Amino acid sequence: MMTQEELKRVAAHRAVEMVTSGMTLGLGTGSTAAHALDRLGDLLRSGELMAVAGVPTSLKTEAHAGRVGIPMLALGGATRIDLSIDGADEVDTELNLVKGRGGSLLREKMIEGSGGKFVVIVDESKLVPRLGCTGAVPVEVVPFGCDRTLGLVRKVFDGLPGFSARLRKVVVGKEEVPFVTDNGNYIVEMFFEDGIRGDLGEISDRLLRITGVVEHGMFIGMATSVVVAKKDGTVAVLHRK
Ligand SMILES: O=C[C@H](O)[C@H](O)[C@H](O)COP(=O)(O)O
Fold it and tell me: Quick one: signal sequence residues (predicted)?
């Protein structure tokens, strides 16, 4: 039986097979996407891939891509993005995603939603019947008035049994402080007892209408395919219908 880390690598390597020389890539963030960065670096060093450039979805990815020698472009400097490769926290049966439990959802959504293919790489444990089944659905909010914004997010799900929301905190020294994203924003985490039931598009619209919300971690209808590494070591590639 392969470990979860090995499965992440298997999925990442399969997605990197879709990369050809000359492509501009969206470079994802997280432990699964990290395997794709390493593989891209290896292929560039060996000369099997040439003239590839990447647009990093986080400062961490920018540093990693720099270490492994992937040439980079800023989002504004890329005329097109041919293919983005990134992990996800959850993938539902329609290939909608929860992303951003690592805090990188905004840049990911900007880059992965800017055209081209978006290939998601996961191990089997990320497949869920409904988004929000296995943990937090993050929402990026501006720090100003964040308590008011948190209250307005709670109102969207008013009366929903088992729903809760809180500001994501981290411990620094002995103190709990808000988690700060690469964009200087905070994260509200939404929790659902048994996942999100209802129209995701409508829920998305209601969240995005709240002044103070910057973006949320539901990636609806964005993934063009999902590479799933299964426990037995086989790989399935699911395509959006
Ligand atoms: O903010 C984090 C990103 O959305 C990641 O792609 C996501 O959290 C999945 O990360 P991992 O591959 O480490 O499970």
Answer: none
ipTM of the complex: 0.97
Largest CA distance in the chain: 57
Protein residue with least CA distance to atom 6, ligand 1: 87
What are the residue numbers of the active site? 108
Reported as a single tens digit per residue, the pLDDT across 76-101 is 998 899 999 999 999 999 999 999 99
- Residue list, ligand 1 pocket, CB within 6 Å: 28-33, 86-89, 99-105, 108
CA–centroid distance, 87 to ligand 1, in Å, is: 5
Task: Report, at the CATH architecture level, how domain 4-124+220-231 is classified.
Answer: 3-Layer(aba) Sandwich (3.40)
CA-to-CA dists, residue 131 to 5, 84, 136, 179, 241, angstroms: 23, 21, 10, 23, 18
**CA pair distance 196, 40, nearest whole angstrom:** 35
Residues 54 and 11: their CA atoms lie apart, in Å, by 19
223: Cα separation from own chain's centroid: 11
Q: Where are the domains of the chain?
A: 4-124+220-231, 137-214
pLDDT for 137-181, tens place per residue? 999 999 999 999 999 999 999 999 999 999 999 999 999 999 999
Instruction: Yes or no: say if 40 and 16 are a contact pair by the CB < 8 Å rule.
Output: yes
pTM: 0.96
Q: Name the CATH topology of 137-214.
A: Alpha-Beta Plaits (3.30.70)
